[in-house]
Amino acid sequence: MADRAFDYRPIAGAPDEMLGPDGKVRPVWRHFVDSLARMPKPELERRLDKADRYLRDAGVFYRAYGGAPNAERSWPLSHVPVLIDAHEWENLAEGLVQRAELLEQIAADIYSDNRLVQEGFLPPGLITGNPEFLRPVHGLKPVSGHFLHFVAFEIGRGPDGNWWVLADRTQAPSGAGFALENRVATTRAFSDIYAETHVHRLASFFGAFRDELQSYKKNADDRIAILTPGPANETYFEHSYIARYLGFMLLEGEDLTVVDGQVMVRTVAGLKPVSVLWRRLDASYADPLELNQHSQIGTPGLTQALRAETVTIVNALGAGLLETRAFLAFMPAICRRLLNEDLKLPSIATWWCGQKKEREHVARHLDKMVIGPAYSRLPFFDDAGESKPGRLLREKDPEILKTLAERGGRLVGQEIVKLSTTPAFVDGKLAPRPMSLRVFAARTRDGWTIMPGGFARIGAGDDVSAIAMQKGGSVADVWIVSDKPVKWSTLLPSEENFTRNMPGSLPSRAADNLFWLGRYIERAEGALRILRAWHGRFAEYADRKQPLLANVSNYLAALDIDTEEQVPESLLMNISSALYSASNIRDRFSPDGWLALNDLSKTAREFREKIHPGDDATSAMTVLLRKLAGFAGLVHENMYRFTGWRFLSIGRYLERGLHMSRLLGHFSGPDAPDGALDMLIEIGDSVMTHRRRYNVATASVTVTDLLALDPLNPRSVLYQLNEIKTEVEQLPNAIVNGQMSPVHREALRLYSTLALMTPEGMSVDVYARLEREMETFSDLLTRTYIG
């Protein structure tokens, strides 16, 4: 045990979560540590790999600050959970409940009577000069009666063994979804240990909060939505994950509009009311009309909807003010004033330098202080990701005392944080690493409820002064361990409360992304089939000037596909566009589908650098087609047949119809080179079918009959139009008052016109007209349902 992974030496001067002051393993850790000690090294490595594989398969990611746009990074799991005794957690939770209620009352005072300022408990400048103070919402009482509904706290254990609050998170706290994924991944690695340990579950916390939000709905058919800044946000994965987990809509600002003071979501069935918005964007960006006019992610008129009391926003606009670091200096006195009791859980020692006495104290103890902006909500980290005494300001301004005197109102000093350590695997062995916890509190019908866990931030090095998650840190699950069995919890309703809920309304933006996802995927498949056929013949002729090869190259060039490139850039762009469309609807897209698309993109880019024209490229195209078929199979077999499925399918059918019409118009004419018809049958994946159905060699009439007019051939144009007609019939408002909608009518006309044609009547002009009419139909569909 000691000579392999458990030669564990705590850092001097820092308390350790696993080892007590006497150097012995704490009781709450004993079973976990003993289980690890009995585990052979290969077994341990297999378990850790199992957790990492789960996170990869689930597509869990985040985006680091300063990274490339849309660059996704793997979620950095520290495999060893942090274990906390349930009795200790009860005391901690009691202090956090008090703090959540205190923050609620502070927000209510600031945005109404301002008695805390009038009575001297808060300096006026910390309110009026704070960019998070939103004047347009002053005096607006939330329709729910509460400013705060979901908050988080950064907490850490100090050298004396007690817990401190390092920061309050009231703006749009992130991480709850990641806490769920940490739990799943960690239990994949240690399922047997977890089952034998009385760990409090997380589902009941989310279930209680979901029920509370449901109670805020004005009407039964109103919607609850999570308002996200979009896929470029660093925690977008979590937004989509929570939306799926709780069954809420995931919306962006452009999905919403305000009509007569009511927030409405644009759906393919028209405008639908939204009465609860769990916002995950900063408040000032929520309404470009009254708050931040430069915002491109908000909804104009949202503030007016608050005045009309038609919507509950979680948390209330302006609540981010409470995250201001300088507020920590005033919390003890405010708590006594508002709650008539002392803080049960103290904040990290903080001094606002706008007061002479406090400024002088900071100046006298610079070696023990970190100094920074009073209004900031972020931790004090320099460029190296470390907190250093007095240097955040000193290195930039040698005359620090003068700066404190002149700019004191904009600065705070905070005592250097010495955090406790927790075990983490480093190079195959357990090593102490500094940690802080992010803990979540939700307002429920029973009052504030604390999530029994949260997640731990683990430092990358052994510096206990600070933790920088963006500088290589990691995260760990938090197990709250009871000495007796805990209640099993689930979000699923009991059998006696069973109801069949219909799928929610499809937002127009989601429909647009699903429609184009289908088109891009089919566009990529069409290009791959042509390229495979071209390279197969190039392997035979080895001459790009051969008439058929030259003809196909010219055809592809018109589509911006260069046969000089084995994997053309335009093909990669189509796959990337499909990925982008899928990324915009992660809440509606299965992890398996997402992984399949990513695998396709990765393989295509790898082939681009490795393959050669001819047989090599032919084999590569076949591999890519199989991966595309795997994705299509996942979608076909697993996706629920609701409105979103129909838009995805219509996109695929429409693009396949366009692709085949274009090919037939080019290759079935009298000027087509020798071998064109055989190549066309191959591209249409209909070689065997042609041999069975026609007792003659390929001819223009047989190819036209099979690929244009055969209603049973899934590659024919008529088949695509029939499927489009079928799906359009099921779209919202396809029939109104007994009358077909224009989209329905056009889909039927397209199908009927082609169904009445004969092979002899098909010509280049007919195919060209058909192509134009399908593009016109696409535009009509977009105008009708997407806008």
What is the fold's blueprint, element by element?
Layout: H1 27-37, H2 41-58, E1 61-62, E2 73-74, E3 82-85, H3 86-110, H4 115-118, H5 124-128, E4 150-157, E5 163-169, H6 176-189, H7 191-196, H8 203-215, E6 223-227, H9 236-246, E7 249-251, E8 256-259, E9 262-267, E10 270-279, H10 302-307, E11 312-314, H11 331-339, E12 350-352, H12 356-364, E13 369-373, H13 391-394, H14 400-407, E14 411-415, E15 421-426, E16 429-444, E17 447-450, E18 455-458, E19 474-481, H15 508-541, H16 547-558, H17 569-583, H18 591-608, H19 615-638, H20 643-667, H21 676-683, H22 687-693, H23 700-707, H24 717-729, E20 735-736, E21 739-740, H25 742-755, H26 764-785
Parallel strand pairs: 3-19, 6-7, 6-10, 10-11
Antiparallel strand pairs: 1-2, 4-5, 4-16, 8-9, 9-10, 12-14, 13-14, 15-16, 16-17, 16-18, 18-19, 20-21
Helix pairs in contact: 2-6, 3-11, 15-16, 15-17, 15-19, 15-20, 17-18, 18-19, 20-24, 20-26, 24-25, 25-26
Give the key terms.
44% helix; alpha+beta; elongated; 787 residues; 21 strands; disordered N terminus; single chain
Describe this structure in a few short sentences.
The chain has 787 residues and is α+β, with helices and mostly antiparallel strands. It contains 26 helices and 21 strands.
- Calculate Rg over CA atoms: 31 Å
Shape: elongated
Gap from first CA to last CA: 65 Å
Q: Could you describe the largest sheet, including whether it forms a barrel?
A: 8 strands, mixed
| % residues in beta strands | 5-15%
Mean residue pLDDT? 89
Number of strands: 21
Helix content: 40-55%
| Number of continuous helical runs | 26
Uncertain parts: 1-5, 381-388
Structural class of the helix and strand makeup? Answer: alpha+beta
